[in-house]
Amino acid sequence: MIEIAHLTKKHGGRAVVRDVGFTALPGRVTGFLGPNGAGKSSTLRVLLGLDSPDAGTALVAGVRYRELRHPLRTVGAVLEGSGAHRSRTGRAHLSWVARSNGIPRSRVDEVLDVVGLADAARKRVRTYSLGMGRRLAIAAALLGDPAVLVLDEPLNGLDPEGIRWVRGLLRDRAAEGRTVLLSSHVMAEVAVTADDLVVINAGQVVTRGTTSEVTAGHASLEDAFFALLDRERPC
Ligand SMILES: Nc1ncnc2c1ncn2[C@@H]1O[C@H](COP(=O)(O)OP(=O)(O)OP(=O)(O)O)[C@@H](O)[C@H]1O
Hints:
It contains nine helices and nine strands. The chain is an alpha/beta fold. Helix 3 crosses helix 4 (about 105-115) and helix 4 packs across helix 5.
């Protein structure tokens, strides 16, 4: 489970995340939606221990990320880029991540199979397409068999086949009882992927609920999204 409460994050004295609170539950895919600059990445960076909050808490499995003894075994994260050194092979990258987190080497082949990179595992990361890089990042996130997955814009730049694949993988992980939180601005895809939605704008949560609750009364999630943003705009 992910629990964020009264979270505020400032950059240069300006609050880019203000009093944000929501919960992402096990067995469900939660979509974290908002326009560019809304504060999605800033929230996720605090959640993943990369930044400190100015106020509030962000907990994974009941504790702050930095308190986790084996973070990768509790939470797998996919941030921008594959995170791999470009001159390494995909397999070498995953072996290094496994070794530095006390994860058995046998998991490397397992996750390479899960993400469909087994045939490309001996190729250098610099030869990978964007979709392959994303698969490698997801493989690294899955290495520790974590109960929680956090993905920042995992669908960005992917072709329809890649989007379909990520969607299936995330739905399967949720069906196994894991907690999945993904940020995105690809609304049509989030509508078919997420069970629950949290919509953020200008650093504040503007609505949250099940996908059907948030879209109720609108033709699409996109319509619901813009209606919400219009409501927030000062007249
Ligand atoms: N390190 C930083 N220093 C100064 N300002 C920052 C920093 N990181 C983020 N910001 C600002 O905080 C605001 C929120 O940015 P953030 O990246 O969290 O938004 P986002 O919702 O993830 O947007 P995007 O979809 O464009 O990535 C933006 O105005 C951004 O310019």
